[in-house]
């Protein structure tokens, strides 16, 4: 009997460790070559399946695959593409089945966040709804840390570490300059709906006066007067003020701070940047000299300062996904289960895709301090283990040696797909 | 005979390695305790001398001083404050002499960039002009890499490494996303007048198609049509485009790109950010989805990914400053002399402060590629050695263990200073 082949794809915004999950999937498939045939990776996520662009991972050396563990970004390309429901776009599912059949694919591993687990959940129903049984396992990934069931999401720990360290370093800088120059520093971090990443900056706040002096969460309605008074007090008491702001920070009426109504010289609405808005507000109202930074992609791709715990968990969920598939599971996702805070221990559990898809886990209210601009001890207990340990990539000539795969496509067997 | 005491101060924008220079100065003074008395550090740079706020470094343990070598920011506080000429503000110089006399200070070490070396040069003339002989040695520091005589400036190598790595990492991210989402990524880096930092991003461009696809230097007049055509071509050929832009990028008429005439909802002129301006221009003209980042203080404080060469040079110039002083030099600055490109070797030479003060070294035109948006092999030969090697700080609980000094002030002996 010919072994069934497998399909793996990366989906949504990539992270510093999504390739570590890919490494876990691929190495575990290779170890089980008596049970699983070839592993194809979708070129640009699920699009690779629709367009029959299947990267033949068997053509990559063991060394290249091992190097994925320390390489950021999505080595096979990712995509922002959500399958519609069976009813809305049956042709897409028919196409998937056509491609899976043509390449004898019986396993589907989908590496992504909430939207992607929804896609994985739909694919897991191909047997029941369309008569093409396929083993479908989700692999969790998102810097937003907003998936339910799992204690944390691979990708988050490394961003958390990067933001905590960057806040610490930039604060040492501004503290040095504050007497005669910059007194306020604003760092914008990712998080449109949930303040997990911003909260991580709070880990460096260990005694009174430590930065960050204010964190602005999407979960807490922004109160301008209260915030400005707090900034003023920080500058007066500590000489400076470091602020970490989530891109999704908003007023009580739901208006984003970033949507400040600015227009450029051409009359176009300015897109972006809550950090400059907050900085300008402070300058206008309090007169303090400021600097601001927007970390953007730098934060989620900073593999050079990844959390070791995060890398290990990312690998583990990839490995577990294959093991679950081989054990006969379907429509599940490996989840990280915390078994102890101190010392931190964890194990891999199992979540149903139906429980995970499209659910967004926000920062619990008891993680946010009373004034709404800091984090509680409970939050620190949760966050601290996730940034533990370093896992530096190898360096050559001063630069990290990141993997470059050859990404050769398997020969096409079908006609070109025309999306609706 | 009582030994003369010494004064050390940090000046101007701080760096990831200015404290490594402080460490070099302090440790070398400690080794020569038979020749130099106490070492005082100015609280907030030269202001510490004017206000008689002298940090007694002898109260810090050897361990704390050693930890400065891996701690970013300015441990004693820096300042942006330029002494006027003797003629314009003689009272300031009289005050310096008063403080130096009161604390028996015979050595002055000033750690800064071009403006600061001007201050150091003026102080070196106190003997000749005001009858208070003092040994004055400059210690080079600036992320801008714009000091003359010295081959490079401590602080630059670490920013260069950070920017090269961040550009590489973010490019892997955008390359993964480009098929269905972000196609253009813009990273803004420091450099108002000189493009050294932006140039460093070019180190990751090793073969055709490698990022960054365009670098915008302050030295090259921005040509909108040419730039947009280049971006469009990159997206079409490689699927995405990474752009690194100096904050000081400008049009031929001298207008900064950042000064785009935007006003906010309150009618205030928007300050800042050339990255969003470039990104918005691309969106408006070419329609590509973009992301942008502004590294700001993150880049110059990123001690976690400092260049080992840079740390060693920063320490060496601090050490050499004290050795020069003890050898009887005055009005000089240790300079880094490159003795070979490959293998990279260097030694410490000597520059006259009169040659260094107020001179700005721009990126040579033969470092910039023909199209004005990349760097040449010659630039790579110069830049590559400066980012060599890693010198990670020690970590605890996932965060770097940065030094916290007690910074205790020596007892004041004089009346309060009232600046003019």
How do you describe this structure in short?
The structure is a homodimer of 420-residue chains. Chain A is built from 14 helices and 13 strands.
pLDDT average of chain A, as an integer? 95
What fraction of residues of chain A sit in β-strands? 15-25%
Write down the secondary-structure element order of chain A. Answer: EHEHEHHEHHEHEHEHEHEHHEEHHEE
* Helix/strand/pairing category of chain A: alpha/beta
Measured distance between first and last alpha carbons of chain A: 36 Å
Biggest interchain interface, per-side counts: A-B, 84 and 85 residues
Name some characteristics of this structure.
420 residues, 4-stranded parallel β-sheet, 5-stranded mixed β-sheet, homodimer, alpha/beta
Question: What do you see in this structure?
Answer:
The structure is a homodimer of 420-residue chains. Chain A has helices at 18-31, 46-50, 62-67, 90-102, 114-124, 126-130, 156-177, 196-201, 224-238, 274-286, 297-301, 308-326, 353-356, 377-383; strands at 5-10, 39-42, 54-56, 105-112, 135-140, 184-189, 214-216, 241-246, 290-294, 332-340, 345-352, 395-396, 399-400. In chain A, the strands form four sheets. In chain A, strands 3-2-1-4-5 form a five-stranded mixed sheet, sandwiched between helices. In chain A, strands 7-8-6-9 form a four-stranded parallel sheet, sandwiched between helices. The first copy, chain A, is α/β, with parallel strands linked by helices and 420 residues long. Chain A contains 14 helices and 13 strands. Helices cover 35% and strands 16% of the residues of chain A. At the A-B interface, helix 7, helix 10, strand 9, helix 11 and strand 13 of A face helix 7, helix 10, strand 9, helix 11 and strand 13 of B.
């Amino acid at each position: 009997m010919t072994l069934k082949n497998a399909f793996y794809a990366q989906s949504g915004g990539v992270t510093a460790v999504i390739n570590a999950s890919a490494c876990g999937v691929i190495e575990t498939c290779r170890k089980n070559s008596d049970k699983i045939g070839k592993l194809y990776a979708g070129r640009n996520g699920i699009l690779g399946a629709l367009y029959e662009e299947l990267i033949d991972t068997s053509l990559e050396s063991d060394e290249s695959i091992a190097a994925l563990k320390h390489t950021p970004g999505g080595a096979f390309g990712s995509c922002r593409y959500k399958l519609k429901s069976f009813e809305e776009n049956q042709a897409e599912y028919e196409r998937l089945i056509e491609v899976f059949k043509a390449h004898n694919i019986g396993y589907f591993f989908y590496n992504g966040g909430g939207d992607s687990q929804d896609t994985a959940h739909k694919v897991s129903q191909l047997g029941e709804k369309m008569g093409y049984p396929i083993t479908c396992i989700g692999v969790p990934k998102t810097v937003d840390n907003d998936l339910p069931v799992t204690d944390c999401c691979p990708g988050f720990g490394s961003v958390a570490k990067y933001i905590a360290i960057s806040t610490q370093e930039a604060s040492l800088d501004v503290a040095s300059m504050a007497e005669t120059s910059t007194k306020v520093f604003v760092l914008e971090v990712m998080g449109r709906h949930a303040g997990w990443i911003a909260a991580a900056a709070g880990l460096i706040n260990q005694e009174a006066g430590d930065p960050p002096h204010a964190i602005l969460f999407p979960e807490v309605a922004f109160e301008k007067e209260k915030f400005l008074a707090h900034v003023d007090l920080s500058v007066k008491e500590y000489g400076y003020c470091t602020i970490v702001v989530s891109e999704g920070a908003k007023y009580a009426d739901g208006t984003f701070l970033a949507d400040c109504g600015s227009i450029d010289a051409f009359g176009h609405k300015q897109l972006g940047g809550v950090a400059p808005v907050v900085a300008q507000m402070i300058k206008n109202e309090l007169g303090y000299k400021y600097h601001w930074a927007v970390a953007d992609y730098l934060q989620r791709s900073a593999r050079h300062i990844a959390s070791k715990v995060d890398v290990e968990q990312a690998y583990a969920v990839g490995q577990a996904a294959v093991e679950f598939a081989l054990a006969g599971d379907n429509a599940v996702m490996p989840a990280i289960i915390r078994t102890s805070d101190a010392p931190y221990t964890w194990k891999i559990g199992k979540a149903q895709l139906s429980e995970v898809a499209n659910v967004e886990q926000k920062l619990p209210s008891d993680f946010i301090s009373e004034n709404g601009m800091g984090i509680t001890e409970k939050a620190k207990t949760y966050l601290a283990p996730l940034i533990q340990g370093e896992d530096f990539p190898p360096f050559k000539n001063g630069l990290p040696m990141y993997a470059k795969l050859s990404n050769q496509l398997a020969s096409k067997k079908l006609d070109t797909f025309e999306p609706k």
